[in-house]
Amino acid sequence: MTSLTDTPSLTGSFTAEAFAAHLATQKSAPAWWLERKRAAFTQFAALPMPARTNEGWRFSNIGTLTLDGFAPASPANLKSQISDLKFEAITSLTFANNTLASRTALPADLAAKGVIVTTLAEAIVQHPDLLKAHFMAQPQKLGSEKFAALHTAFVTDGSFIYVPKGVEVPAPIVVTHVASGPGAAVFPHTLVVAEENSKVTVVDYFVSADASAHFACGANDLYAGHGAQLTYVAAQNWSPTTLSFQFNSTVVRRDARVQSLNLHLGARQARHESLSQLQAPGAFSEMLALTVAMGSQEFDQRTLQIHQAANTKSDLLYKNALRDTTRTIFSGLIIVDPDAQKTDAYQSNRNLMLSDDAEANSLPGLEIQANDVRCTHGATSSRIDPEQEFYLQSRGIAKAAADELLTFGFFEEVLNRLENDALHEALRELIKTKF
C-alpha cells in the first residue's frame, strides 16, 4: 500500500531534451503534426502525476507509476515474426520499437476499391485530412490525460486503416506491436476509419520480444460511419514487468455497430481506458473484455459509455479471473444526455476469484439526464462452484486443470460473441498460454 507522501517521478527520461531529440527525427513531418506534438508535450510537462486523492485513480497503486528507467526505444531487428495469434489475416503490419518491421500486401481487389492499410508516417503525408480529423480527436476523460499527452508527444508510427463506403473486408487485418530491450518505451497507435455501410475487423496484438521491463503507452481511435460494422480486438501480452497504458476511443454514428474486445494477459501493472460515444440514432456499441490476472499483477479498467442521441444502445461485459495476490479495478460510468431518449444501456463486471488473497474492486455507475431510458449496471465477485469442481475431480481431472476448464467456461460468454470462429479459437489458445 502506498502513502500520500509517495512522489513518483513526473517525467522520468521524457524531458524537454528528450522531446527535442524526438522532434529532430520528425523533420520531414508537416507543421500541423509537429505543432500537435509540441502542444501535447507542454500538456504532459504541466500536468501532475496521478494522486491517490483523485477519484479517477481510486484503488489504483499510484506509487509504482514512476517513469524512471524508461526512454524512447531504439529500432529493433526482429529475427522472426512474433505472434502467438494463429489465424488467417488478409493483411498485416508489424511494428518493433515504434518502427515498421514488416508488412504483407493488401489484396489488389481491396486496394482497387479504395481500402487503405498503411502506417501513420505514410498517412501523415498521403491522407492528412483524415488524420487531422480522427487522430486523438476525442478528449481523454478517464484520468490519464498526462499519459495520453505523452503518447501524442512521442508517438512515431502506427497503423492507419481506411475502409471506403460500402466496402467489406472479408478477413481480419492484424497489427502487431513489439517492445524489445530493457527500458524500452513504445507508443503503439491504431487508427481505423470505417465509412458508411462498410465492414471490417481489426486485431491489435501487443507483445514483448523478451522479459525486460518495458513502458507501453498506446492508443487507438475507432470511427464507424453511418451503418458501418467495425470489430476491434486487442490482445495485450506484454512482459510480466511492463508498465502499460492503453487508451481506446470509439465514435459510433447512425445505425453503426462497433464491437470491441480487449484481452488482458501481460504487464505487471496495466491501465486500460475505454471511451465510447454514441452520436446518432441506431448506434450500438458492444464493449467486451477478458482478464487473466496472476502473480501480483494489477489491471485497472476505466470505461465511459456516452449516449448523445436518441435510440442508441450500448452493452458492456468485462470478465476478470484473479489468481494469487492480483488486483483488478473496474470503474465504469454510463452517461445519458438529455436528448438521448429511448437509450438502452447495460454494464456488467464479473469477477471469478481463484485465490483468497486476490482483490477485485468494482465501481459501476449511472448518470441519467433523460426520462425515457432503460439502463442497468452491476458487478459480481464469486468463486468457482465447489460442486462443479468436485464433479470434474471425481472424473480424474486434477484441481488445477479443473479450475482452468471452469475459467474457460466463465470466459466463453464473451468469446462466443465474436463472429469469426478462427479468431475466437486463436484468442482461446492465447489465453491457454497464461496457464
Architecture blueprint of SSEs:
Elements: H1 16-24, H2 31-46, E1 71-72, E2 91-96, E3 99-103, H3 108-112, E4 116-119, H4 120-126, H5 128-134, H6 145-154, E5 159-163, E6 173-179, E7 184-186, E8 189-194, E9 199-208, E10 215-224, E11 229-237, E12 243-252, E13 257-264, E14 269-278, E15 284-293, E16 298-307, E17 313-322, E18 327-336, E19 344-353, E20 359-368, E21 374-383, H7 386-393, H8 399-415, H9 421-434
Parallel strand pairs: 1-7, 2-6, 5-8, 6-9, 7-10, 8-10, 9-11, 10-12, 11-13, 12-14, 13-15, 14-16, 15-17, 16-18, 17-19, 18-20, 19-21
Antiparallel strand pairs: 2-3, 4-5
Helix pairs in contact: 2-6, 7-8
Brief overview, please?
The protein has 9 helices and 21 strands.
Key features of this structure:
435 residues; globular; ten-stranded mixed β-sheet; eleven-stranded mixed β-sheet; alpha/beta
